[in-house]
Design a protein that fits this description.
It comes from Natronoglycomyces albus. A hairpin with a 5-residue loop joins strand 11 and strand 12. This protein has 462 residues and is of the alpha/beta class. The protein has 4 domains: 155 residues, 3-Layer(aba) Sandwich (Alpha-D-Glucose-1,6-Bisphosphate, Chain A, domain 3); 105 residues, Alpha-D-Glucose-1,6-Bisphosphate, subunit A, domain 3 (Alpha-D-Glucose-1,6-Bisphosphate, Chain A, domain 3, 3-Layer(aba) Sandwich); 104 residues, Alpha-D-Glucose-1,6-Bisphosphate, subunit A, domain 3 (Alpha-D-Glucose-1,6-Bisphosphate, Chain A, domain 3), CATH 3.40.120.10; 77 residues, Alpha-D-phosphohexomutase, C-terminal domain (TATA-Binding Protein), CATH 3.30.310.50. The protein is globular. The longest helix has 15 residues.
Amino acid sequence: MVDEQLQAIVKAYDIRGTVPEQLNERIASAIGTAAVEVTGVRTWVVGHDMRDSGPGLAEAFTQAATKAGADVIAAGLCSTDMMYFISGKHNVAGVMLTASHNPAQYNGMKLCLPEAKPISLDTGLARIRDRAAEILADPDSRDNSNTAQGTVTQRDFLADYAAHLRGLVDLSGIRPLKVAVDAGNGMAGHTVPAVLGDQLLEGLPLEIVPLYFELDGTFPNHEANPLEPANLVDLQAKVREVGADIGLAFDGDADRVFVVDAAGDPVSPSAITCMVAEAELAKSPGATVIYNLICSQAVPEVVTEQGGKPHRTRVGHSYIKAAMADHDAIFGGEHSAHYYFRDFWFADTGMLAAMHVLRKLGNCETSLADLVADYDRYPSSGEINSTVEDQAGKIADIKAIYGTKCDVTLEELDGLTITFKDGSWANLRASNTEPLLRLNVEGATEASMIRLRDDILSIVRS
């Protein structure tokens, strides 16, 4: 049934499914109509990534939106953060046709209201889903007879986007850096030459060593998901081969960035959060910085040391963005390498985070590894996934066992967080989309981290 199909592809924060089985032009058209009707917004920007299905899905959304009375700015090839830039700068709603880091057979949509305000299940996506289901079940319910058809305007925003980011972080005076960049055949191959190179603007003191900049939605070299260590291997090798000062890896829609140092060793996203928080707090002393509960304890420590106010949230960009707006936060970081900026309409942009790191590195003579050493304060496990059918039952088991210990505090803000008096902690939470439990552990020492990790895993996987 169509409504079951929509239930399957409409996630907490976006829409994703296989093409054409789960997501096709008919469904994109229904969503286009529903988005205009539900939100009441009459101007939309529509962009798409490099996947083969993107232009057709974008055109279907566009045609439906204009028939529903909306004017559409067709932005063509975009990174997701470029779509947020257009939405924020021009005060229009937006849709980005992308499946981010998912494999080639997928596509999807990320939607936002004007000023890049996210549309999640709780803020309109569920109503858009349900209205689209009605349209698909009864096309006659899509009555545009009394609505003047909107217009379509084609426009390229790449130069404006690049200039805006350069206006936020000035890299012109840094020392020369050699920067290896793995675009993963994703949208960073489109945006990096414009922002960090000399394709559209004056050149910077950066020697960009490109890796997989060719736009190719089949991902012929590796999946565009740098969160998986296997997808960083080529960048790590390239950094060592060319003697780069730093390596950057972007995901498919280029809204996330991962960093490796000159030795090819990955830099923790929590350490990047600390580094960027320092830079943002230097501009806005005393401001609030948002971080999620699986970030290192080093994050609130550094924020406090820099005179800022740390605020902790659940995992997930809708929670981060809501907290940023509520607290007028200057910056927000997630351990998944999403970075959010008040100067960027509270939206996430991997490119702006990368520029902050480049400026920090370029304004000193030390290596990146030395720079981040102060932020890597505690041993961590990284995220460990376990396939578990009864996630709630296993979490209850862990709660019952650790709840009897006198040196433990339990918290259920997002899954279960166990905190020990020595500062060691573990968070166990269920995936929203798969039968997985996700475990993150940080220890006061390497031994305490390993012991806590292994104890919890033995229970989860028993």
